[in-house]
Specification:
The protein is of the alpha/beta class. 36% of the residues lie in helices and 19% in strands. It has 12 helices and 12 strands. The chain has a 5-stranded mixed beta sheet with strand order 3-2-1-4-9, sandwiched between helices. Strands 6-10-11 form a 3-stranded mixed beta sheet. A two-stranded antiparallel sheet has the order 5-12. A hairpin with a 5-residue loop joins strand 10 and strand 11. It is globular, with a radius of gyration of 19 Å.
Length: 302
C-alpha cells in the first residue's frame, strides 16, 4: 500500500468513513496498514496515574451511571485523575444527563466520534494526555473493591519484570483467530500500563472488531509485545494478590469459580455470572482449555 493511500485512510477513519468503505474495511481489517506507536507530545508527563473510562453514547446513561456509582462507592488511596471519553455523542445536550450523573466527581473530558472501538479511543487518550500510568476501562466496567488502582500499581512495581497488569486475563482466543494455546493475554476491557512501556507498543489502525481482538490477543497483540520486551503480564485479584500467567485460572477472576477474585467486572464477567452451569463450563473451556473443569465444577457449583 502506498504512503499516500495509508495517510488518506487514516484521515478518513478520524473523520468518519462512508458506510460502503466501512463494510470493505471490516472485511479486510487493518492488516493492510502498518502498525504504529502512539504519538507522544513534548509536554511534561504528569507523575500520577490517569484512569481512562470510555462512555459510549449507544450504551446508554444507565451503564454510565453504574460505573460512576461504583467509582464513588469504592475509594482509592492513590492520587489520580479521571478521564471520561465521551464517544459518539452527537451534541453537547446529549451529554447533559451524563454531567448530572457526574455531579461532585472531578474529571477531565475528551470527545471522540464513534469509530475505532475501545482500543482506538484508548490510543487517542494516550496521545492527548501524558501521565505516568494509564488504567483503561471500557464502557461495561464496574469497580468491585476499594483500592483497585493501588493494588494494580503495587503489582506493577513489585512483581518480577511486571510490564502489563489487569484484573483478568485469559489463555483463549476469539473465533476465527489463530488457535495457539495457551494464548496468554491480559484482557483489554481493563488494564494498567506505564506510559514509558506503552510508548514502545505498536498499535493497529482499528477498523473492525477483529482488529481490536488482534491488539488484545493476536500474534502481534499488546501482551505478546510486552513479553517480547522481556516483561511479564500479571493478573491481580481483589485482595491484591498477583498471579503470573501460568497461574491465572487460580485467581478466580475470569470464567472460574464464582469469579470471587474479580476487582473490576465487565460485560463478559456479567455474562458468566448470570449463566447456568453448562454455559459456564463452555465459557471456561474457551478460556482455560482442558483444566477448566477444575475451576468450574468444583469451585463454581451452585
Amino acid at each position: 500500500m502506498s504512503a499516500a493511500l495509508n495517510t488518506l485512510l487514516k484521515a478518513a477513519a478520524r473523520k468518519g468513513l462512508p458506510e460502503s468503505v466501512v463494510r470493505r474495511l471490516r472485511t479486510i481489517g487493518s492488516s493492510v496498514l502498518p502498525w504504529t506507536r502512539i504519538s507522544t507530545n513534548n509536554g511534561p508527563t504528569i507523575s500520577k496515574p490517569l484512569i481512562v473510562y470510555l462512555a459510549r453514547w449507544r450504551e446508554g446513561a444507565a451503564v454510565f451511571s453504574r460505573f460512576i456509582e461504583s467509582y464513588r462507592d469504592f475509594a482509592d488511596d492513590t492520587p489520580h485523575d479521571l478521564l471520561i471519553i465521551f464517544k459518539g455523542f452527537p451534541t453537547r445536550s446529549s451529554r447533559e444527563e451524563y454531567y448530572r450523573i457526574l455531579d461532585g466527581v472531578t474529571f477531565i473530558e475528551l470527545k471522540k466520534s464513534d469509530t475505532g472501538f475501545d482500543i482506538g479511543s484508548f490510543r487517542k487518550a494516550c496521545e492527548h494526555f501524558s501521565y505516568s500510568h494509564y488504567l483503561f476501562l471500557n464502557s461495561s466496567c464496574r469497580i468491585l473493591c476499594e483500592n483497585y488502582l493501588t493494588k494494580l500499581l503495587n503489582c506493577l512495581t513489585a512483581a518480577p519484570c511486571a510490564g502489563l497488569v489487569g484484573p483478568s486475563g485469559s489463555w483463549g482466543w476469539a473465533q476465527g483467530m489463530e488457535a495457539i494455546f495457551p494464548n496468554y493475554h491480559i484482557r483489554t476491557s481493563a488494564f494498567l500500563v506505564r506510559r514509558e512501556v506503552l510508548s514502545s507498543v505498536y498499535w493497529p489502525t482499528i477498523f473492525s472488531k477483529h482488529d481490536a481482538y488482534t491488539f488484545e490477543h493476536g500474534g502481534r497483540g499488546i501482551t505478546r509485545q510486552i513479553i517480547a520486551m522481556g516483561l511479564e503480564p500479571y493478573v491481580v485479584d481483589a485482595d491484591g494478590r498477583w498471579f503470573a500467567k501460568e497461574y491465572w485460572p487460580q485467581s478466580l477472576t475470569h470464567r472460574a469459580g464464582h469469579q470471587e477474585g474479580l476487582m473490576i467486572s465487565d460485560k463478559q464477567a456479567d455474562l458468566f455470572a448470570s449463566s447456568d452451569l453448562s454455559v459456564r463450563e463452555r465459557l471456561a473451556q474457551h478460556a482455560w482449555g482442558e483444566i477448566a473443569s477444575l475451576y468450574v465444577r468444583v469451585t463454581g457449583s451452585r
